[in-house]
């Protein structure tokens, strides 16, 4: 039997509520498909920061370097500034493990109402650059408290950094419906984007089987709402991809639905799987978080570890519960709990509880 070692970081807020759902689904899918998961759980979180002064230990990356994958719930809690929780945990993991692709698929499931009228046949993937771009470490705040106070941050786009994510997106598009949309802002204002566009054009020329278009980020955001069915793969810089992926999730019904995979495609390091949403302090502790994003993320993990059939089974079970039942968590207008919805998915997966 194949066996995998997974590092679980439930994190904060609803991260702790949706991670058990993902774990139960991994176990159930594993039982069906002859895969065994072993877990090591880490308490890296804002609570740890408040108790010990650090989100994770200094050798945190070394402790999970040899796991087959990481699953992260969410980080962030009131009382701890976000820059502490993010630069202290999430960003070092993504960067330290060179997870330069953030893969964020979305689809409108049958039985789920999209807030967008007529949104049907929506099935696309945002490929977000995940380690550079607008989220650079160059810059800071100056003259705090003075009248001339200012903040600067240099966006850093490197040729290798853009090339590798664009190539990943082109390959993915070639395996899907053959269409790639590049999110840009090339109309002369932002210096980095004509550079991005040049690399997209060069790499697209090497992959003629993919139909490549570029759209300005502002117009693209509007088209995500007006005509979301036209997209297949969308490649975007770090910040553009962040915004587009929440927008895409909203088009599909809400941000609690959306999964994400932070991938190190070369597999030099473990990849990290986490739903798109955050720790949702406004609903944390009530047992009503939508587990769909986390469960779908578990499917991405299965796929990454070579279990495509098991992954399809999990996505199919989610789709079946949404199509056959009225079970919905409150963010989708229902009264189901996290545990109740997850139980239905487990039942659908075949009595593996
Ligand atoms: P958020 O995603 O936590 O919440 C936004 C809104 O969506 C809230 O109203 C929340 O209740 C709702 N929501 C999110 N996920 C849901 C789910 N699964 N089910 C039902 N409702 C859900 O974003 P935010 O409010 O901008 O950020 C809150 C905290 O999370 C901050 O500290 C932020 O830094 C952090 N954050 C972390 C990650 C991550 O760990 N990957 C991602 C985004 C935000
Ligand atoms: C996400 C989150 C993070 C990001 C934040 C919390 C830094 O919004 O994973 O989408 O912007 O990458
Ligand atoms: Mn985000």
Automatic annotation (TrEMBL):
Lineage per the UniProt record: Bacteria, Bacillati, Actinomycetota, Actinomycetes, Pseudonocardiales
InterPro entries linked: ICDH/IPMDH, IsoCit/isopropylmalate_DH_CS, IsoPropMal-DH-like_dom, TTC_DH
Stretches assigned to coiled coil: none
Name this protein carries in UniProt: D-malate dehydrogenase (decarboxylating)
Pfam family, one: Iso_dh
Cofactor(s) the protein requires to work: Mn(2+); Mg(2+)
One MF term in the entry's GO annotations: tartrate dehydrogenase activity
Similarity field: Belongs to the isocitrate and isopropylmalate dehydrogenases family.
């Amino acid at each position: 039997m194949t066996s995998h070692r997974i590092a679980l970081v439930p994190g904060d807020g609803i991260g702790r509520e949706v991670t058990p759902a993902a774990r139960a689904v991994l176990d159930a899918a594993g039982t069906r498909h002859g895969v065994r998961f072993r877990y090591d759980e880490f308490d890296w979180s804002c609570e740890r920061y408040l108790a010990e002064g650090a989100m994770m230990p200094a050798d945190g990356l070394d402790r999970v370097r040899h796991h087959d994958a990481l699953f992260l719930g969410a980080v962030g809690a009131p009382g701890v500034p976000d820059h502490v929780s993010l630069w202290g945990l999430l960003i070092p993991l993504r960067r330290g493990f060179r997870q330069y692709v953030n893969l964020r698929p979305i689809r409108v499931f049958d039985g789920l109402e999209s807030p967008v009228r007529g949104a049907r046949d929506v099935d696309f993937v945002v490929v977000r650059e995940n380690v550079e771009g607008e989220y650079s470490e160059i810059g800071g705040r100056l003259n705090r408290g003075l009248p001339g106070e200012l903040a600067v941050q240099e966006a850093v786009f490197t040729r290798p950094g853009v090339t590798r994510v664009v190539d990943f997106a082109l390959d993915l598009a070639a395996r899907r419906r053959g269409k790639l949309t590049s999110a840009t802002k090339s109309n002369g204002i932002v210096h980095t984007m004509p550079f991005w566009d040049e690399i997209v054009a060069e790499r697209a020329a090497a992959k003629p089987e993919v139909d490549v278009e570029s759209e300005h980020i502002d117009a693209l955001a509007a088209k995500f709402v007006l005509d979301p069915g036209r997209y297949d793969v969308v490649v975007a810089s770090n910040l553009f991809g962040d915004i587009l992926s929440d927008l895409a999730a909203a088009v599909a019904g809400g941000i609690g639905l959306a999964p994400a995979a932070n991938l190190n495609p070369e597999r030099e390091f473990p990849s990290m799987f986490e739903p798109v949403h955050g720790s949702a302090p406004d609903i944390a502790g009530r047992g009503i978080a939508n587990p769909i994003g986390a469960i779908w993320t578990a499917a991405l993990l299965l796929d990454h570890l070579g279990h495509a059939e098991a992954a399809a089974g999990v996505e199919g079970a989610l789709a079946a519960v949404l199509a056959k039942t009225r079970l919905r968590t409150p963010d989708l207008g229902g009264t189901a709990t996290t545990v109740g919805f997850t139980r239905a998915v487990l039942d659908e997966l075949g009595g593996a509880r």
